[in-house]
Amino acid sequence: MERASDSESTITGVILRPEDSSAGLEPFLLLPGDGLLLIRGLDPQSPGIDKACLTILYADREAHACLGEGLSAAIGGALLPFWPALAEAIQLHSLVMTQEGPRDLWLPWQETSLLVRLFRTDDGVGVGLLAFEEGFAGPSLLQPQRGSEAIARQRVELFERLLHAIGDVVLVTTAEPFAAPGPVILYANAALLSQTGYSYQEVLGRSPRMFQGAGTSALVRAGMRTALENWRSFNAEVLNYRKDGSTYWVDIAISPLQDPSGWFTHWISVQRDVTSRHHNLQHLKNQAYQDPLTGLPNRRSLGDYLQTALDRLHRHAGQAVVMFCDLNRFKEVNDTYGHTVGDRLLVAITKRLQAALRPDDVLVRFAGDEFVVVLEQCGSRQQALAMAHRLKKQVGNTLHVDTAVLQPRIGIAMTSDPLTAAADLLHQADLAMYRAKRQKGDSVEIYDPVLDD
Predict the structure, then answer these.
(1) Where in the chain is the domain with CATH 3.30.450.20?
(2) Positive or negative, the Cα torsion across 229, 231, 236, 240?
(3) pTM as predicted
(4) Looking at the domain 1-150, which fold is it?
(5) Which of 234, 278, 310, 371 could connect to 227 by a Cys-Cys bridge, CB 3.0–4.6 Å?
(6) What is the mean pLDDT of residues 386-410?
(7) Taking CA 292 as the corner, what is the angle to CA 288 and CA 295, rounded to the nearest 5 degrees?
(8) What are phi and psi of 442, to 5 degrees?
(9) Residue 197: DSSP 8-state
(10) Contact, 119 vs 126, CB < 8 A?
């Protein structure tokens, strides 16, 4: 590689490397054997930085071998006294890195020069240690990979073309660190750009966590971190986010890569888009657990809602309340005027009931003209009765269809015991509802154990 001492791009102690565009594809950010430093201190909101504020966050094994024993003591401390030329280069090139991507530079190091690659990370800058000045007998970890460069480049180009040709996403990251900012992306194939809408410049040097968001399962993320910290492979389906904020599902497989000595050097992630499958499964689930007429949860889903309300009693004092609602004489209307009128009536009643409930309450169409309401965080018997009468009022107390008079009958069951069986609580509300149907006066009844007799 030629070095131009009088180039316009030359600054004191720093000489830019000409860009290599022979491959026509984005190169790997770092190759196996390259050293890596992570530097913190760049403000993403500010174009300028102060080199005195830069600190050394992390260094991998190759970086330690390259820079010597003094690096261990420098980690966590200021970069400027350890390597002044690097601090100056980061300060001068921070804006260019942000706008144009990674920069390759020759920097003085002790009695020789090092070729480094500067690139932005999530909260700082990454420094790849690529090669010593030609003729310098540097560490064997770095020197061999730059011999026979033309042959090596051809192999890498072929490998890149193969990865770009496949439809699945392939990501290669550093092996460490696990703490923030985490492993950084060294390579991404074309499928990732197509899938996410990001450019190479926006992806390289960032953490793969950039694709996660509020909807990504915390349980999956915790499992992924545990696997990585123990150098184990990981596989799961994960909700990811595109650049425009839209979501997609991937089946992700992550595996650690080892060098011949058994040292873990990288992570490779292969991701297949399974969004269509998830949408199909969600559609099938909606069909199985959603009433097609009213859009409400159906009888099959009721057990989960009841159990959730009961489980919450382990953590919060209060009552789990179930209301069983039935429309008296609805069958008469259905038989007289037909199912079309009956269906329209059920949809109208559903809207009225929903308007009376709180956001966290659950309304379920149980069967025919029967509805079940699950109330959470209900404090007392009086509050449950107040809600039942509110439902009656919202429905209209009496609904007239020609000569038929429809009245909602409501049975209430409640418990403060989280060990109550969900089926028992529902049965108690059902018994109370049938008692309400037999009463000539008020059409709301609360379960009483004597009803079991």
Answers:
(1) 166-288
(2) positive
(3) 0.58
(4) Beta-Lactamase (3.30.450)
(5) 234
(6) 73
(7) 100
(8) -60, 145
(9) -
(10) yes
Beta strand ranges found along 14-123 (DSSP E): 15-16, 35-40, 55-59, 103-109, 112-120
Q: 131, 125, 119, 103: which is closest to 57 by C-alpha?
A: 125
CATH number for the region 290-452 comes to: 3.30.70.270
Distance CA 31, CA 35 (A): 9
Residue 89: left (phi > 0), alpha (psi -120 to 50), or beta?
Answer: alpha
Q: What is the pLDDT of residues 5-57, one digit of tens each?
A: 333 333 333 333 333 333 334 567 887 778 999 998 866 555 567 888 899 99
- 296-333 confidence digits (pLDDT tens): 998 888 888 899 888 888 888 788 899 999 887 777 77
| Segments in 263-407 forming alpha helices (H) | 275-289, 299-312, 330-337, 339-356, 381-395
Q: E strands of 142-233, at which residues?
A: 169-174, 185-188
Strand partners for 57: none
Q: Find tokens 């259905």 and name the residue.
A: 334
CA 246 to chain centre: 12
Assign 200 to helix, strand or coil: helix
Structure tokens at 362: 């659950």
Task: State how far the Cα of 215 lies from the Cα of 225, in Å rounded to an integer.
Answer: 17
Neighbours of 173 (CB within 10 A): 23
For residue 3, report the phi and psi dihedrals to the nearest 5 degrees: -120, 125
Give 355: exposed, middle or buried? Use CB within 10 Å, 0-12, 13-18, 19+: exposed
Q: What are phi and psi of 135, to 5 degrees?
A: 95, -15
Give 449's DSSP letter.
G
Q: CA 56, CA 38: separation in Å to the nearest integer?
A: 6
Contact status, residue 157 vs residue 150, Cβ threshold 8 Å: no
Q: Is 336 left (phi over 0), alpha (psi -120 to 50) or beta?
A: alpha
| CATH architecture assignment, domain 166-288 | 2-Layer Sandwich (3.30)
Question: If you count DSSP H runs as helices and E runs as strands, how many of each does the chain have, helices first?
Answer: 14, 17
* Range(s) within the chain of domains with CATH label 3.30.70.270: 290-452
Could you tell me how many residues make up the chain?
Answer: 453
Residue pair 7/16 in contact by the 8 Å Cβ criterion: yes
Enter the tokens of residue 66.
């390259």
Distance (Å, whole) CA 171 – CA 207: 11
Query: Beta strand pairing status for 399-401 and 264-273?
Result: unpaired
Structure confidence by residue, pLDDT tens digits, 377-396: 777 888 888 888 888 888 76
Which structure tokens are listed for 250? 């991937």
